[in-house]
Amino acid sequence: MRGVIRKIGYTKSEYGFNADTVRITVSLHEQSPDIAMGVNASAESRDSDEQELGAGDQGMMFGYACNETESYMPLAIELSHKLCKRLTQMRKDRILPYLRPDGKAQVTVEYDSDKPVRVDTVVVSAQHGPDIDMKLLRQGILSHVIKPVIPANLLDKQTKIYINPTGRFVLGGPAADTGLTGRKIIVDTYGGYARHGGGAFSGKDPTKVDRSAAYMARYLAKNVVAARLADRCEIQLSYAIGVAQPVSVLVDTFGTGRVCDDVIAERLTDIVRLTPSSIIAKLNLRRPLYEGIAAYGHFGENAVDMPWEGLELAEQLKQQGDLYDAIQEGLNDLALGNTRPFAEAMTDVKVKRTK
After folding, report:
1. pLDDT tens for residues 303-335?
2. Pairwise CA distance, residues 190 & 175, whole Å
3. CA dihedral in degrees (310, 316, 318, 319; nearest 10)?
4. Burial class for 102, CB neighbours closer than 10 Å (0-12, 13-18, 19+)
5. CA-based nearest residue to 264, from 191, 324, 347, 196
6. What is the pTM of this model?
7. Listed residue (118, 126, 122, 116) closest to 147, CA to CA
8. Strands 232-239 and 160-163: what pairing?
9. In angstroms, rounded to a whole number, what is the distance separating the alpha carbons of residues 111 and 349?
10. CA–CA distance from 254 to each of 48, 75, 194 (Å)?
11. Cα separation of 342 and 65, whole Å?
């Protein structure tokens, strides 16, 4: 733990938080046996020889993807994460040596017909040493952080840029403002662009569907968009504690789908099991892979090597779109009085379904 604090940059007492002097208390106890009895053996498997984990809690989880960026993430949160990463890099590389570890960013994007067209506002707040001139700090962050990250074609004369708008940010980190929140759930996900069930990720083992099902929902949504079944896709999974199968699987493509949302949902549940045991196994979640996503987001470019960012399902899902195109083409010909192409299209559908 001290190593993580040191890696972040809290190495001086003047920061109010020091890796070498901070008091660390470890206090662990077993999970409630009332919860464990439902997690260790799901309601469905209690009368069966096959053991299946039950969900570690009730709740709803959401996954989202869109075609705004190469990472299938909303543009605003992807730019915000890049700004924060760049801020850290400039501090650690000593290019902006007056910066301290705390910092955050926010980006407002303007849309036209659901397409991002410009960046309206950029906000960057960075902790700094007490003696730095604010004008110098603002110029440094503008030149070395904002301009290298925000594409020039998205900035214009009307773009508003706020750098340390209060005018001073010397005291930061846990010494200045801290609380037990389970991390900021919107920063960890989609920046408020998509719904969120309310459960945090960090600190939870994968039997807690707050974490594992949210990862699976992102995996499914991303593959739907990558397969070009929709431009945007949000997937909601809901669970009851102690029950393995989800009580709800809902797909919403916001009117952008090439295929009916219900058909996508049916196809997904046909090819992927959504029980906690199956999610953990498919995404290989019982291993130490989470440190790299403890900051800068659990999805998108920051998580490119995570298993839930894979696109293995896209080709299978693409076949569903091909079926839709074949039927639509046949219907168009039928409307023109030509019945043969429609018959061929329906034959094609049967062949592909058989495959």
Report:
1. 999 999 999 999 888 876 666 665 566 666 656
2. 28
3. 180
4. buried
5. 324
6. 0.88
7. 122
8. unpaired
9. 38
10. 40, 17, 11
11. 33
